[in-house]
Amino acid sequence: xxxxxxxxxxxxxxxxxxxxxxxxxxxxxxxxxxxxxxxxxxxxxxxxxxxxxxxxxxxxxxxxxxxxxxxxxxxxxxxxxxxxxxxxxxxxxxxxxxxxxxxxxxxxxxxxxx
Amino acid sequence: xxxxxxxxxxxxxxxxxxxxxxxxxxxxxxxxxxxxxxxxxxxxxxxxxxxxxxxxxxxxxxxxxxxxxxxxxxxxxxxxxxxxxxxxxxxxxxxxxxxxxxxxxxxxxxxx
Lengths: 114, 112
Known about the structure:
Chain A is mostly beta strands. Chain A has strands spanning 3-7, 10-12, 18-25, 34-39, 45-51, 58-60, 68-73, 78-83, 92-98, 108-112. In chain A, strands 2-10-9-4-5-6 form a six-stranded mixed beta sheet, with no helix packed on it. A four-stranded antiparallel beta sheet of chain A has the order 1-3-8-7, with no helix packed on it. The radius of gyration of chain A is 13 Å and the shape is globular.
């Protein structure tokens, strides 16, 4: 069974940093492009970032470019999202998903507030 | 960016009755490989989105056959033949033909 489990969310002050993780199991993680998608409270879904299967290519939404970094450890079947210079508008549930978009994690909540 | 427009914003449906949701994209979702990258998700309250339909009309594993998808190019429809209580939540369409992935604004389905 495919499983994606996010962790690392929490309450952080504006300007602070967080590192999200997404642990994958049940499939060959190293063969899949991976994505982060976020959802602000009561709002819709917004794509954040994508990384290719070996980590050599990454792309970001304009709203997070230069502040967020997506990476992966294929030896540990884990996807990461390093979030720096956090803003209140980054407050959201963050989901990881695999290419094919068939499996999403349960999400991890990031709250940016003073 | 491709804009995805869903209608209606909300639906109130009597159990056993059909429901239909429209999704329109600002550009064709037909790729050069012949596939059309349009997906439908249901987000039940307090849960993450779950895939219902991929590539316009293919039901994902375990999805009941009362759900069906149709359409081509830029116009797509999700139909529920007989709504059940467990179908409540917000339905989203998503395009996967190009980055950024973009989603419709959602259609909230509730039971009368």
